[in-house]
Amino acid sequence: MATTATYTVAGMTCGHCVSAVTGELAALPGVQAVEVDLIKGGASTVTVVSDTPLEADRVREAVDEAGYDLVDPS
């Protein structure tokens, strides 16, 4: 059964940003889909569908590799 998780990512401003984050997250094992709701100049919402829940550290590393910041939930 697939798992859906939503993350908040800061620093994205354009389609290239969306592509970079989508590509890094899609490369994680088990990821089936990535959808980004871009909020220019704010915190964007990233929804990831995967085979099993993803480890937060792996998600953070993928977002960091793309050049953006994963916002910790409050």
Number of helices: 2
Weakly predicted, low-confidence segments: none
What is the strand arrangement across the widest sheet? 2-3-1-4
Order of helices and strands: EHEEHE
Shape-level CATH architecture: 2-Layer Sandwich
**Can you give the mean pLDDT?**
94
- Biggest sheet, open or closed, and with what strands and sense? 4 strands, antiparallel
Counting helices, strands and paired strands, the structural category is: alpha+beta
Number of domains: 1
Q: Helix fraction? A: 25-40%
Number of strands: 4
Distance N to C terminus: 28 Å
Percent strand: 35-45%
- Principal-axes geometry comes out as globular
Whole-angstrom Rg: 11 Å
What does this molecule look like?
- The chain has 74 residues and is α+β, with helices and mostly antiparallel strands.
- The chain has one domain (3-71): 2-Layer Sandwich (Alpha-Beta Plaits).
- Helix content is 31%, strand content 35%.
- It has helices at 15-26, 56-66; strands at residues 3-10, 31-37, 43-50, 69-71.
- A 4-stranded antiparallel beta sheet has the order 2-3-1-4.
- The longest helix has 12 residues, at 15-26.
- The model has no long low-confidence stretch (mean pLDDT 94).
